[in-house]
C-alpha cells in the first residue's frame, strides 16, 4: 500500500506548481458558477413546472428571453438605444451632483454656519422618498429628460455631500498646522492637502452615488416619458403591453448597466488612490 | 479658527536681547476650558543653543513649543522668535501619504516658494543627510516608523531653518531606532548650527542632546529648575556611561521628582 501512494506524493509538487494559477482560478470561480447554474435551474423550474403554458408569460424561460429578445436585433436595438439615453442622463446627473456635492462638502467643512444651514437639507434629500417628489418635479420641470436628470441629481447628491464633508473633517490636525506654519494660501491648502486627503472619501461617496444615480435615472425614465425613451420608459411600456420576454431582457440589460457603472467607479477609485490608500485597493 | 491661526503668524522680535533667538517672558496660558497650562514661564534660548524641556505629561511643555512656533498665543506675557525661518517637528511624522519621500521633503520649500534649482539642491541634500536617498521615490507606507520620522526631519532640514522646534519627535520609536535618531540629530545640529528647542519626557534623551535642560512641574506648568549639561558638543552614544552624564541625569531626575 505504501508503494502505491509514494509515487503520487512525489509528483504532486510538480503538478501543482504547473497548474496552480488555473486551479486557483477554477476554485474561485466554482461556487459562483454553481450559484448561477442553480439560479437558472430555479428559473426553469418556475417557468415549466409551476406555470401552466397559458400563464408562462409571467416568467418566460431563459433561452426564450435570449432568442426572442436579446439576440433579436429588432428587439434589442431599441433597448440599447434607450439604455444609451439613460446612460447619458445618469452621466449628466452624476456630474452635476458631484459638482454641487463636492462644493457643498468643502463649504460645510470650512464654516460651521454653512454646515448647520446645509445639513438639514442634505438629510431631507436623503429621507424624503424620491417617488414622493416625482409629482412636484413633474409640475415644476415638465415631463421630459430635464426632470429625469433632476431625479438623478437629487438621489445622488446626499452620499457625495456627506462623504466629502467627512473626508475634509477627518484630516489630521497636525497636517493642517504644517500648512499653517508653511504659510500656505487657502487655494494651496485646498489643492495640496484637503482635496487629495479627502479624495478616497469623495470617491467612496461617488461609488455609492453612482449606484443610486442609475436607479434615479430609471425611475425618471418611467415617470417622465416625454422625449427620447430611456430604458425605464421601455420597461413601463413592455409591462403595459405584457411583452414579458422584452421586459425580462430589458431588466437584464439595466442590471448589466448598473454593474458596469459601479465597476467603473470602483476601478477609478483603485487607480486614483489605491497606491496610497486602502479604500481604493479593493 | 484657521484664519485666526494665520493672523497669529507674525510673532514679533521686539523683546529679543542680543544673541537671543527665542524669548518667553512671564507667559501664562489658560484655555477656554479653564485649565491653566502654563503659569509665569520665562525662558530664553541663545542662538545656536540646544535646549531640552522635560516634564511630566500634562505640564504644558508641548504648549510652550506651540507658543514659540506661533501656533498658539499666550493669555498673558510675550513670546518672541528671532527669525522667520523656523521648522516644527511634530510627534508623528505628519507626512502626506500620496507624496513620495522626496516630494514630502520638498513640501515646505514649495510652500516657501523657493526657486526650483534651490529647492532641488536643498531637497537632495536633506534626503541625503538623513540617509534616505535610496528610498526617495517610495511612498511613506513602504517605510518603517523610524524612516518616516527621518523624512519628517529631512522636510524640516530642507528649509535650512535657524530654529528647530521638536515636539517629542522620537517618543513613538523603539529604543534602537531612537538612539540612532538622537545621534543623527546631534550630528545635524553640529553641522547646521540651528537653535533647537526639544520637548521630551525622557531625561536621558534630554541630557544626551541638550546644552541646557529645563525641568517643568505639572499643572499649572512652571519651570522648576534648569540644569547646564556642560558636556562637549561632539558626544557619542558612549557618553551615557560617563560619570558626568550620569550625574546630570540624576540632577534632572531629582528636579523632576520634586527633590531638587
Keywords:
heterodimer; A: 282 residues; mainly alpha; 2 domains; 84% helix; B: 260 residues; alpha/beta; six-stranded mixed beta sheet; 8 helices; 9 strands
Write the layout of secondary structure elements.
The complex is a heterodimer of chains A (282) and B (260).
Chain A: H1 2-50, H2 62-70, H3 73-110, H4 112-127, H5 130-141, H6 145-169, H7 173-181, H8 186-223, H9 231-240, H10 244-273
Chain B: H1 2-7, E1 20-30, E2 36-46, E3 50-54, H2 61-69, E4 76-81, E5 86-89, H3 101-111, H4 116-129, H5 145-157, E6 163-167, H6 175-192, E7 195-200, H7 203-209, E8 212-217, E9 222-228, H8 243-256
Helix pairs in contact in B: 3-4, 3-5, 4-5, 7-8
How would you characterize the overall build of this protein?
The complex is a heterodimer of chains A (282) and B (260). Chain A is mainly alpha-helical. Chain A has 2 domains: 57 residues, no CATH class; 219 residues, MetI-like (MetI-like fold). Chain A contains 10 helices and no strands. The two termini of chain A are 48 Å apart. Chain B is 35% helix and 23% strand. Chain B contains 8 helices and 9 strands. A 6-stranded mixed β-sheet of chain B has the order 5-6-7-3-8-9, sandwiched between helices. In chain B, strands 2-1-4 form a 3-stranded antiparallel β-sheet, covered by helices on one side. In chain B, strand 8 and strand 9 form a beta hairpin. Chain B is globular. The interface between A and B is medium-sized, with 21 and 25 residues.
Short description, anyone?
The complex is a heterodimer of chains A (282) and B (260). Chain A is mainly α and 282 residues long. Chain A has ten helices and no strands.
Strand-residue proportion of chain A? under 5%
Strand order of the largest sheet of chain B: 5-6-7-3-8-9
Task: Please give the count of helices of chain B.
Answer: 8
Distance between the termini of chain A: 48 Å
Shape of chain B: globular
Report the CATH topology name of the domain at 1-46 and 57-83 and 195-260 in chain B. Rossmann fold
CATH class of the domain at 1-46 and 57-83 and 195-260 in chain B, named: Alpha Beta
- Encode the helix/strand succession of chain A as letters: HHHHHHHHHH
Query: Helical content of chain B, roughly?
Result: 25-40%
Average pLDDT for all residues of chain B: 85
Which regions of chain B have little confidence, pLDDT < 50, spanning 5+ residues? Answer: 1-14
Computed over alpha carbons, the radius of gyration of chain B is 18 Å
Number of strands of chain A: 0
Largest sheet descriptor of chain A:
none
Task: Work out the largest interface and the residue count of each chain.
Answer: A-B, 21 and 25 residues
Structural class of chain A: mainly alpha
Oligomer state of the chains in this structure: heterodimer
